[in-house]
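Hi there,

I know you've been waiting on this one. I reran it after we fixed the sequence typo, so this is the corrected version. Both the input and the resulting structure follow.
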Amino acid sequence: MRALVRLVLRHPSAVVALWATLLAVAAPFALQLAGELRGSTDAVTGSPSELVTRDINTIFGEGSAFTFPAVVTSSTTPVTDPAFRAAVATIDRALRDSAHVREVYHYWNTGDSTLLGRDGRSALVQIVPRASTFFDAESSVGRIREAATSAPLSPEWEIKLTGSIALFHDLDVNSSDDLIRAEKIGIPLVLLVLLVVFGAPLAASLPLAIALGTSVIALATLFILSRTMPVSVFAQNAVTMVGLGVGVDYALFLVSRWREELAGGASVRDAVETATMKAGHVVFVSGLAVCTGFLALFLVRISFLHTLALGGVTVVLTSVLMTVTLLPALLLLLGEKVNWPRQPRPKKSAADSRWGQWARHAMIHPWRYLIPSLLILAVFIAPTLRLEAWTFGAGDISEEMEARQGYDLLVRNFAPGRMAPVALLVDAREGESILLPRNRAVLESTVGRLAADPRIHLAGLAAVSDGGRSAVISLVPRAAPESPEVMDMVRELRAAPWTDARAAGLDVRVGGMTAAIIDFDAELFGSLKRVVPLVLAITFIVLAIAFRSVFVPLKAIVMNLLSVLAAYGFLVYVFQDGVGANLINLEPPGGLNSFIVLMLFTILFGLSMDYEVFLLGRIREEYDRTGDNRESVISGLSQTGGLITSAALIMVVLFGSFGFTRLTATREFGLGLAFAVALDATLIRVVLVPVLMGLMGRANWWFPWQAGKRLQGRPTEARG
């Protein structure tokens, strides 16, 4: 570490030039990412729904599992008019001329009257894309729409391509507008907070510049990854949020320590070296904790999360490297100009500062603050016991999006279930045909029984394979694919014994988007059993080594878990119960998205370490110097309390700005992060940490390897 810092300080201009070149190269790629977003419809590899999807595409032809519904409407012409048939034929030809369409079905080439709308002026066109995966299907949406709109028709005709996969496509394409809207709110407010903290424009601009540079490089990395891996809207939003948050925080820690050293009489160069050595250790440990959370996503069997993990690791590592290389070089080159017009003043002694006085008071009266604090946490944690899963659908996106407009037409003239029908794949025994009299009788009986279910709008035999061994029964529910009603129905279908079918030697499997959603949620919630222990274990090891203590990392882990659980509870109150939802113009979806639940844990656990490591680093530094636990805690909080509050305010502003976007899942993510950071930096770090460390006394610093004792009293990098 020291060698790297001195190398940077010997060649500051070269370091700045190197980073400027890297940013100039990365910027054009970062700007192109919005056009490459996809992959929000990922399937769980090896799951029952994924296997059914794969088999349907193999048996019935490429894209058969991903059929898009498109609604053709006329403002004046009824479907009984030959002009309507001619218009659909024109659209049919335009679609078939596209390299991305394999087949087109409609009333006039199938005779299926259920493809005609109730209003008499709309018809459903079923488009089979050339796609073997969800990603391929989602990527084809834009080109299929271009082909459909290229049909030479008068303005009275409209075609709206919709369906669950098209919905995710629209979500990805329009997410960039939300991101820009959030940044327009968050970045100016962050700059304002930094100006208040430093009282100097240059000092305030440096952390923001580091954060923006970090985000540019990470987004460029995602663009490069998009060539071979799916990159979703959530990857873009998560990487941007984390990049801005940790970038500002890490730089804030270093700049503040540099100003503190200057105020103590150090030269600019010595102040830069000392600040980088001390704050750099905090940044490295915190960065490792955040990276651990991201890397744990590789334990989930969903490929777009792996891309998100790589983007997250990139943004954190870039932030760490820019903080310990570019920022010291800039501070050395700019020197005292950074502090104009308000020069840093020497800090008050721990006894005189408000933070020091608070820490002493809290440690003298620990139970007065411990019990109320735990009660407050209990109020927020309790709702997690009734957390419900929620999956967004067409009703949760803007009415300006084509998939939403098509969905509204389906609701009005067909059925919401047309967005993604349930598919039953029926296979006969090897060497037998599904069309044998006894098998056909079972199929017809099954279809009749399902059609009588009040939750099903239509049930019918959709296709029979060329060899006659397999068939697909299509079920169009009355409700949307993501609705609890349809999800319960799919679970029942999966659990059904299919007695008649089994007796005839037929195998029945359930597929479709609803089944994929159920498998997706099960994988995400189930992966917590793998992700949580790994993150806890690695975090404990890292903190134990960094602070040469057993209790300190245990306490940090418990405190972080409390922050995460409280964030879940807060989101349950707002997004499930609707508490305060009207204040932010929110229509409560009735639960939390499974993806958000997983991501909040993996990211929050690392972000919370920012303040934990920063506070404990100063406490450990003082304890190594004095050997007095109480005074070390008081001194540590007096030196870091104000900075932790400022850093947390910046994170809250950044993350909170994402709570006012249009996408409900992004709002859950942003507000969950904002609440957890605010709670962590106040109740957790400022109240519970000093109280608990005061109660534990010297036991805080017990460590089984006695070699740690020999390091006490000597300045080492581990004391940052």
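Quick highlight: DSSP finds 23 helices and eight strands in the chain.

Best,
R. S.
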